[in-house]
Design brief:
alpha+beta; Phosphorylase Kinase, domain 1; Transferase(Phosphotransferase), domain 1; five-stranded antiparallel β-sheet; three-stranded antiparallel β-sheet; 13 helices; globular
Length: 504
């Protein structure tokens, strides 16, 4: 049998034990230690980790067997393992979130069949590798869901159909109805936190970022700032109070990601502060567009105020789009004799105007006569490691290099042709302005940039009147230096922006 060492710094974590070849020996074996670093391998003397499932900025997850149960079932053991570059405050917040996940799973996992159950939480203290002191580790053991998360599904199959997304919306909203009813807000809904098991049942995972709220309203305390960039609504990004509609917003962004197979940054127009996703799914029904747009409204009070209300609206359209029949779900039984709180019925609420008439557009704001624009404030930079492409620095630097390279070529060409004059400077400014506008509108991007730059370089270098006394190598050298300077300037201002964001 192979056992994985869970010490983060272990150089060779895989340990093989030929004597652990029967269930009887696994149940009776005494503590074993890593042959490389001396770390105890049997976690809490109970769990035998055999495979690394994944790791991120705050921790790692291992597949393990539970030798205290008769059939040695598999489970997931999560280890708190923050990044080394976290400061003391960030590390404390991360630890708090990890411990919070254990509390929430203990409270909710036993009551709902689509939330993983908690088996154990333990914090062993072990000798460090130099045997000069002690180290403390944090673990939780939870139910293993054998399947794929929606991020993995998206990477495998590509974009989801409207019917598939509608079914996912309904299922996750049912879970959220239960979560919110228990005075909890998840705060980190995204495709990687939604798992589908091999029977087709969806599970909501990763409750480390949950927020406890007071009965009857939100907690006035500010958010800790832990979220996934792009999926979080404005109030969460600014560190303000969060609400049940915070989860509803993140679920809508998740649906956009699944419907379009695009990074969420590609769907958000930061210049106009709007979500621009309709063109990527031209055949989607108008009613689902209205529902998702309402879920994406920047003001929490303007979104659906509960999962129940959103469910009522979705139930109507789910019957109209001829959805794909979902896999038959196995009969769920209560966990550990705890009652299962039934999710909302699929029957529309006839008292809710959102569910009465499928031809009537959804009102954007309840009890008001005005309809706010579907806009989202500019995301604010926060001091936090992200799980999902926090900022497309590569794209920004590529655009800067293109502008520098292209600007140098155009300047050389026009000045050589027209001489240095107000006319040539004006033309250069107009051309560069047009190029920057095209970049912003994504008229030219990615491979187009290289093609455009090569064509311009060829014209300037090969036509004598466009390079004057400069040789072709000199033209290319000047353009390359200009591109490098543009990259350096952009990177400098990016750094200044980060420093100011942290200070202010």
């Amino acid at each position: 049998m192979e056992i994985i060492c869970t010490r983060p710094s272990c150089a060779k974590p895989l340990n093989s034990f030929s004597d652990l070849d029967t269930e009887a020996k696994i149940r009776t074996v005494q503590q074993r230690y890593c042959s490389t670093c001396g770390m105890p391998l049997l976690l809490a003397d109970r769990y035998l980790p055999s495979k690394l499932l994944g790791q991120g900025g705050f921790g790692a997850a291992f597949l393990a067997c539970d030798r205290y149960k008769p059939k040695l079932p598999l489970c997931v053991v999560k280890q708190f393992k923050p990044s080394n570059d976290l400061d003391a405050d960030e590390r404390a917040v991360a630890q708090e979130l990890f411990e919070r996940e254990a509390v929430v799973l203990e409270e909710l996992g036993q009551k709902h069949p689509q939330i993983p159950n908690l088996y154990a939480f333990f914090t062993p203290i072990v000798q460090n590798t130099q045997h000069t002191g002690e180290e403390q580790y944090f673990y939780l053991a939870q139910e293993f869901i054998d399947g794929q998360d929606l991020e993995q599904e998206l990477a495998t199959k590509g974009k989801f159909s409207e019917a598939e997304v509608t079914e996912i919306l309904i299922e996750i909203l049912k879970i959220l109805e239960f979560v919110h009813a228990n005075n909890t807000i998840h705060r980190d809904i995204k495709p990687s936190n939604i798992m589908r098991n091999k029977q087709g049942v969806l599970y909501l995972l990763d409750f480390g970022a949950v927020k406890q709220i007071a009965v009857g309203g939100g907690n006035p305390k500010k958010s800790t700032g832990i979220f996934s960039m792009g999926f979080a609504p404005p109030e969460q990004m600014s560190g303000a109070q969060v609400y049940p509609s915070t989860d509803i917003y993140a679920l809508a962004v998740t649906c956009l990601n699944l419907l379009t197979d695009k990074e969420v940054e590609e769907l958000y127009d930061s210049f106009n502060h709007t979500w621009q996703w309709h063109s990527f799914v031209p055949n989607i029904s108008d009613r689902l567009k209205q529902i998702l747009d309402r879920m994406l409204l920047p003001t929490p009070a303007h979104r659906f105020q509960s999962a129940s209300v959103a469910l009522a609206a979705l139930t109507v359209i789910s019957k109209q789009i001829n959805p794909v029949t979902p896999p038959k779900k196995p009969t769920q039984t209560p966990k550990q004799n705890q009652p299962i709180i039934s999710p909302v019925s699929n029957t529309p609420n006839t008292s809710n105007p959102l569910a009465l008439n499928t031809t009537t557009p959804l009102p954007v704001v309840s009890n008001t006569t005005s309809t706010p624009a579907v806009t989202t404030p500019v995301p604010q930079k926060i001091r936090q490691k992200r799980t999902k492409r926090p900022f497309s620095l590569t794209e920004v630097l590529t655009s800067a290099a293109f502008i520098g390279f292209e600007g140098a070529l155009i300047s050389i060409g026009l000045i050589s042709w027209l001489a240095f004059s107000g006319e040539s400077v004006g033309i250069i400014g107009a051309v560069m302005g047009g190029i920057m506008f095209a970049l912003h509108r994504r008229t030219i991007e990615k491979v187009d940039l290289a093609i455009f730059a090569l064509i311009t370089a060829g014209i300037v270098a090969l036509i004598p009147k466009f390079h004057g006394t400069l040789t072709t190598p000199n033209v290319l050298i000047i353009a390359t230096i200009s591109a490098a300077a543009a990259i350096a300037i952009t990177a400098f201002f990016r750094l200044v922006h980060q420093l100011l964001s942290r200070l202010l």
